[in-house]
Amino acid sequence: MSQTIKLTTAQTSGLVILRLFVGWHFLYEGVIKLYSPSWTAKGYLLSATYMKNFFQWLAGESMISIVDTLNIAALLIVGLGLILGYKTKLVSIIGIGLLLMYYFAHPPFPGYPQGITEGSYWIINKNLIEAAALMVIFLFPTSKVLGLERLWAKKNVQASTT
């Protein structure tokens, strides 16, 4: 039983803006880390309060350079993909995975230390909220409204009609 939901222009515009804002946040975080030669995820991973063994393994000497590189690359790829409207389903899934890693390193669970946070959270924090926003972006094809996927879809339609 499949239903098609018709969105208003305002709703679609809101979803496009959400995609662009989340994309900007990812891209910004990736660029800042890329151009900060002393940046590393090591301290964040070593201070993990949940799944400590896993995050300490990621912070180990044999893994940290790979983890840092993959973190920066994922942030840049997700950010650019969302802003450009290219492969938005794929980059949304990558972004959700990255945010869940951040979330589970320092979850706002009762009884766990909160560490340095921007507020007092209980179960839900900004990482989980942004992951939910990426789920919405995944579910609604806004790149077909504004993005490279729209341009290529038009080219494919024109090529198939000629």
Automatic annotation (TrEMBL):
<keyword id="KW-0472">Membrane</keyword>
<feature type="transmembrane region" description="Helical">
    <location>
        <begin position="7"/>
        <end position="27"/>
    </location>
</feature>
<dbReference type="GO" id="GO:0016020">
    <property type="term" value="C:membrane"/>
</dbReference>
<feature type="transmembrane region" description="Helical">
    <location>
        <begin position="63"/>
        <end position="83"/>
    </location>
</feature>
<keyword id="KW-0812">Transmembrane</keyword>
<protein>
    <submittedName>
        <fullName>Thiosulfate dehydrogenase [quinone] large subunit</fullName>
    </submittedName>
</protein>
<dbReference type="InterPro" id="IPR032808">
    <property type="entry name" value="DoxX"/>
</dbReference>
<keyword id="KW-1133">Transmembrane helix</keyword>
<dbReference type="Pfam" id="PF07681">
    <property type="entry name" value="DoxX"/>
</dbReference>
<feature type="transmembrane region" description="Helical">
    <location>
        <begin position="90"/>
        <end position="109"/>
    </location>
</feature>
<feature type="transmembrane region" description="Helical">
    <location>
        <begin position="121"/>
        <end position="140"/>
    </location>
</feature>
